[in-house]
Amino acid sequence: MRVPAESLVLALAVGIPWALAAALSLLDGRKRWVGWVAVAGLGATLAALARLAVLVVGGGRVEMTAGGWPEGVGITLRADALGATFALVSVGVIFASLLYEVLGGVRSRTFPALVVFMTAGLTGLFLTGDVFNFYVFFEVSMTAAYVLASYREQDHQVRAAFIFAVINLLGSVVFLIGVAALYHVTGSLDMVTIAERIDPVQPNSVIAIAAAIFVAFSLKLGLFPFHFWLPAVYVGSHPPVAAILSGALANIGSYGLLRFGGGLLPRELEFGSAVVVVLGTASIIYGALQAISRRDTSEVLAYSAIGQAGYVLVALGVGGTVGYAAAVLYAVVNSLNKGLLFLAAGLRGPLVGPAFAVGAFSVAGVPPTAGFLGKVALFESGLASGTVPTSVALVVLIFLGSALSFVYSFQIYQSRFWAPKPDDQGDRGKPSPVAPRVVVVLLAALALAVGLWPEPLLALSETAADILVGGP
Q1: Alpha carbon distance 314, 309 (integer Å)
Q2: Distance (Å, whole) CA 72 – CA 56
Q3: What is the per-residue pLDDT for 446?
Q4: Three-state SS for 226?
Q5: What is residue 151's predicted lDDT score, i.e. its pLDDT?
Q6: Choosing a second label site near 20 at 20 to 30 A (CA), which of 181, 204, 326, 446?
Q7: How far is 76 from 51, CA to CA, in rounded Å?
Q8: Could you give the angle at the alpha carbon of 53 between the alpha carbons of 58 and 13, nearest 5°?
Q9: Taking the CB of residue 387, how many other CB atoms lie within 10 A of it?
């Protein structure tokens, strides 16, 4: 039987990481050639995802059922603009982080395999059309993340990994309860079918389900007041691991809130939109103020992650095509920013400071970086929020959050790269190897390129928003 080209691309995007992870699990990841095999495999996955993104923007959804099984029995893979966008940016951050570590020297035999296993889980999660399979891929990603959080096995890293495991297992239990409840009220686990059958269900039942799912993804994303675990984990992690956790794994929360809130439970999201905006506002202000009060670079970036995730929540609360497009766009930009900043923070030497500055300017929304594009989209969503007082309040919030972001970003740059203390992480000792520094420079160049040529990202985010509101 001839497989359509679109389905083949989808199968490659999901299948390459699984086959590669299985092979790498038998090999010693400390050997340089093993690391480069992992890099090459992730590069092929990234190329397949880029092709898939072009296909879904130009021709709509791509769907297949694995193994030739009937739909509803086999694993249904379904790629649309929303899933393809998140898969592409997440694998891009993981690819850069793995390349960074391989160039600097892998310290653990399991590191490449774990990174690829996480990639397999994330691609499956973003490209599945079944809620239960979403949960299964979810757990595959999280299991790899638990082990990665203890990479290099120092005491503080092991403690951070334990905290991460406990909190995220709690989130997984809450999410599984929500999945079971969705099946109970709709009789299906297929996302399209759930969206079609959810309207006639009693609102009281669905509101409780939506609340459980919201709590689960808020824990994963580290939103206020579910943020208490995040600083310890990010501060205790090795820079490429922190970049993966913040720039790729955290996208589960953003994607989940968009897919389940905007796509499957839009009525309940609209009902609770005020609460969503308030929690997003609290995350923005709390994260920024805590970041300003810290002096350690990793701590500042950890609290910054809390604040930046709040912008996604505010745009989600605004809803509609403009709000969803802003949420997708900002989630992508935030992933790129966090990957760049965490990787640059682990280096020293020429070129690192300018690369970090680009990431810092992007977080603050300074043109011509990608962050400026995200902040403009947020301003547009604020103006489209409805009443004049609400619009003014959201615009003021976004402006205030950007100003605070600029303050703590400048503080990091000043202490880490401008006038580092001899006993600080940013000492003027031996520079880091050139190759990892080139990786962060390339990421900084990408942040500038997205800001200067935003059309592809705008097309992806707008198409994703159209899908969530039931458009073409």
Answers
A1: 9
A2: 22
A3: 93
A4: coil
A5: 65
A6: 446
A7: 20
A8: 135
A9: 8
Question: Of the candidates 360, 369, 337, which has an alpha carbon nearest to the alpha carbon of residue 409?
Answer: 360
Q: Please tell me the predicted confidence (pLDDT) of residue 67.
A: 61
Q: What six digits make up the tokens of 415?
A: 């202490």
Kindly state the tokens that stand for 39: 């890099």
List helix spans (H) across 319-432: 320-345, 352-364, 370-383, 388-413
- Give dist(CA 466, CA 176) in Å, integer: 28
Q: How many CB atoms lie within 10 A of CB 12?
A: 17
User: Can you say whether residue 238 is alpha, beta or left, with left for phi > 0 and alpha for psi between -120 and 50 degrees?
Assistant: beta
201: left (phi over 0), alpha (psi -120 to 50) or beta: beta
Domain ranges in the chain are: 272-472
Closest CA to 379 of 392, 364, 363, 360: 392
Cα dihedral 155, 156, 159, 164 sign:
negative
Sequence-separated (6 or more) residues with CB below 8 Å from residue 18 = 120
Identify the pLDDT of residue 72: 59
What are the start-end ranges of the E strands in 76-115? 76-79
Residue whose pair of structure tokens reads 């990421």 in the numeric block = 443
Q: How far apart are CA 237 and CA 345, in angstroms?
A: 12
Q: Name the H helices within 198-296.
A: 203-221, 230-236, 239-244, 251-256, 266-271, 273-293
Query: Which two tokens mark 128?
Result: 């599945």
Q: Is 74 helix (H, G, I), strand (E, B) or coil?
A: strand
Report pLDDT for 336: 93
- Contact yes or no for 148/244 (Cβ under 8 A): yes
Q: Which helix (H) or strand (E) holds 460?
A: helix 455-468
List, for residues 15-49, the tens digit of each pLDDT value: 999 999 999 988 888 899 999 999 999 999 999 99
- The low-confidence residues of the chain, meaning pLDDT below 70, are 1-3, 66-74, 151-157, 160, 221, 236, 385-386, 419-429, 471-472
Residues 151, 136 contacting (CB under 8 angstroms):
no
